[in-house]
C-alpha cells in the first residue's frame, strides 16, 4: 500500500491598516509606531498586515481590495470641523 502525501494550501489572511494619523515621538520610541500597536493588539500568527498611510495620501489600489479579509482604520487628530485639508 502506497501512501500519497498531500499538502493543503492554507490561504493566509491579509489585513490592511489605514493609518489616519502620524506616529508620535512617544509611540515611535515606545512601540516602534502605530502599526506595531495595531498588529500586536488585533493580529494573529500567520496573518499578513499591510500599512497604508492614508494621512499622507497612500491607499491600497482598487484592484487589490478583494485580497483583504478586512481593514482597520486608525483614529485621527483631525476632525470634520477643523480647517485641515481632507
TrEMBL record:
Name the record gives this protein: Uncharacterized protein
One cellular component term from this protein's GO annotations in UniProt: cytosol
Annotated localization: Cytoplasm, Cytosol
Lineage: Eukaryota, Viridiplantae, Streptophyta, Embryophyta, Tracheophyta
Principal location: cytoplasm
InterPro entries hit by this protein: ChyE-like, Class_I_gatase-like
Amino acid at each position: 500500500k502506497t501512501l500519497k502525501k498531500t499538502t493543503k494550501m492554507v490561504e493566509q489572511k491579509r489585513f490592511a491598516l489605514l493609518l489616519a494619523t502620524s506616529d508620535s515621538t512617544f509611540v515611535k520610541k515606545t512601540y516602534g509606531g502605530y502599526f506595531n500597536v495595531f498588529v500586536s493588539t488585533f493580529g494573529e500568527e500567520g496573518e499578513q498586515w499591510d500599512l497604508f498611510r492614508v494621512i499622507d495620501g497612500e491607499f491600497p489600489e482598487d484592484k487589490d481590495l478583494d485580497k483583504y479579509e478586512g481593514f482597520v482604520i486608525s483614529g485621527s487628530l483631525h476632525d470634520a470641523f477643523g480647517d485641515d485639508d481632507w
